[in-house]
Amino acid sequence: MNAQAQSASKSASIKRPLGGAIGTVRKGAELRCNTQATQKELNDFYMRELSSPGDFAAVPTTMEYKHILTVENEWSEYEQSRIDLNALPGNEKQFEEWYIELRQKHRKETAPFFDFLAEEASLAQVAFFCALEAHVDGKFDDIIALSQIGMSGDMKLALAENFWDEMGLGELEEMHTRVFVRAASFFNQQMQGHDVAALIPVAALKNGNLLLMYALRRQYSARLLGTLTLLEQTVPFRFSRMIRGMERHNVPKEFTYYHDLHITVDANHGKQLVSRVLLPLARDNPSAIRELCIGCLTRYEIEKDYYAGAKTVMDTVIIDSATK
Ligand SMILES: [Fe+2]
Ligand SMILES: [Fe+2]
């Protein structure tokens, strides 16, 4: 174990117990960061921070930050208490092996939920999950834009290429946010009779807010890259299973297009992020490895909670369209 891993391990043994909210942060469920109200408050704040220039008056004032930063620190501490920071990788090679192992574990653990969407879920259940994503993922191109700040050289180019893909390679109607909105409108229509906003699991809000917090707070710039990479690399599997579910219910091609497109595009984004961003960063700045790992692990934990929360709602509320 290198010095960095030893020091991480030492601090972990003092205040970072493994495996969930029980331990240093005993009452996770009671913390405000784990409530709908607080996650909605954070999301509203982030949306105001990302206001369009025409909406400049909505941007938060300096006075408003004190409270939000306190909530964010509390949330970050909670998430850090849930992850294992023992024996983290200490160099580029170790990081690459660690990351591949995490990705494999991620696939294994998330597969049952996506197999359910592919093979068993009703149209309403598939639509609910797609509608949830629409509620939490509307600003992805801004997140990619923010991830480039401070970079230089090939790393910046890798993110610039990713950003240009998000811009639909210059075609207005191909901008990913626009394609996404068109697909979301179809899935929202399937949800008539359900108040999706009221059914959003807290973890779904956290899943979207984590990216926004990491993108908007510069001290988390390296964590953001870990989170983004795991997100992009896991899209092809997740979306291919979702498309199987959509096709089973004869969802028109124009509404499966967003997911279809990302199977290829995000496979490339993930690959580029690993080889041109994460690995060079780990090689040139070993002290950033711990941050990359925190970004990956936090995303992973929240994502698991998100899918579990979504499945619970599907099993208990979205059951009016019989499973086919
Ligand atoms: Fe995209
Ligand atoms: Fe992407």
Top keywords for this entry?
mainly alpha, globular, binds fe (ii) ion, 324 residues, disordered N terminus, Heme Oxygenase, Chain A
So what's the overall shape?
Answer: globular
Query: Can you write the helix and strand succession as a string?
Result: HHHHHHHHHHHHH
Q: Which ligands appear in the coordinates?
A: fe (ii) ion
User: What is the name of the CATH topology of the domain at 114-316?
Assistant: Heme Oxygenase, Chain A
Helix fraction, binned, reads over 70%
**Average pLDDT:** 90
| Largest β-sheet summary | none
Put simply, the count of helices is 13
Beta strand %: under 5%
Please describe what this structure looks like.
- The protein is an all-alpha fold.
- It has a domain at 114-316: Up-down Bundle (Heme Oxygenase, Chain A).
- Helix content is 72%, strand content 0%.
- The radius of gyration is 20 Å and the shape is globular.
- It binds fe (ii) ion (2 copies).
- One fe (ii) ion is lined by residues 162, 232, 265-266, 269.
